[in-house]
Amino acid sequence: MSDSELRERASTGNAQLDEMMEGGPLRGSVSLVIGAPGTGKTCLGLEFIAHGVELGEPGLIVTFEHFPKKLLRDAASLGYDLQEMEKNGMLRILFTSPEIFFEQAQTPGGLLDTMVQELGAKRILIDSISHLERLAKDPVKLREVAFTFINALLRHGLTAIVTQEDPDITGDMTAAQYGISYLVDAVIILRYVELDSSISKAILVLKQRASSHDKSIREFRITESGLAVGEPFADREGVLSGLARKKEIDAFMEVFGKKGKSTGKGEVD
């Protein structure tokens, strides 16, 4: 990969998320998407892969938890025909165990090497890296496993999205879990948020190496056309805790009226 290619961006397929990332992930980079079950991690990854195919960039999906049939159904609900992409030689879906894939990823001429070369893959989705914890219980060893795993992706110059399960529905972020956050180039957080007695979802680009990025926390929805990213939670605080609340000044103004409203006698009401 040339220097000019390394400075290029690979669009995620979502204009709002690309804008948050100053144009999208850098080519040849690894982006980690962390979130609780159902927050949209796989949807984001499928959108990334499908958009790449639309641009003529073959993609590879490696899944440790979703049977291919379920993945095809989920993608169809977003408007993406993965079967057609496979028929056209632009996509491969590999459903395997983390043990087998990790072993093959380290082997020259192994399964990963073969699939990337045969397909001419430019993008890859790994769903989900959380299953690597089955390979080692010791935190230090697990860190080595993650390091080896990430390097296997980078060796091919692939632009990768890797998902990671967050066991907490709400609460503290776990981006540093397994020591993986420092290994990747970007970290995207997806969270559930309790907002006005209902559940919403929030997205944040927590980190992006070698590039600036939007640091606002934005609301998003999963639609028939993929992720729809909205405006920042400008009038809320505590969003990432899962219990968003109105800022004190906004709550005060809502109760007592607009600041500076005149009574007509030079007094403030």
Secondary structure topology:
Elements: H1 3-6, H2 15-20, E1 30-35, H3 41-54, E2 59-63, H4 68-77, H5 82-87, E3 91-95, H6 98-106, H7 111-119, E4 123-127, H8 139-154, E5 159-165, E6 186-195, E7 198-208, E8 218-223, E9 226-232, E10 236-237, E11 245-246, H9 248-256
Parallel strand pairs: 1-5, 1-6, 2-3, 2-4, 4-5
Antiparallel strand pairs: 6-7, 7-8, 8-9, 10-11
Task: Report on the architecture of this protein.
The chain has helices at 3-6, 15-20, 41-54, 68-77, 82-87, 98-106, 111-119, 139-154, 248-256; strands at 30-35, 59-63, 91-95, 123-127, 159-165, 186-195, 198-208, 218-223, 226-232, 236-237, 245-246. Strand 10 (236-237) and strand 11 (245-246) form a beta hairpin. It starts with a helix and ends in a 13-residue tail after the last helix. The strands form 2 sheets. Strands 3-2-4-5-1-6-7-8-9 form a 9-stranded mixed beta sheet, with helices on both faces. It has a two-stranded antiparallel sheet with strand order 10-11. The protein is globular and about 55 Å long. It is of the alpha/beta class and 269 residues long. The longest helix has 16 residues, at 139-154. The chain has one domain (3-191): Rossmann fold (3-Layer(aba) Sandwich).
Task: Name the features.
two-stranded antiparallel ribbon; 11 strands; 269 residues; 9-stranded mixed β-sheet; alpha/beta; 31% helix; 9 helices; Rossmann fold
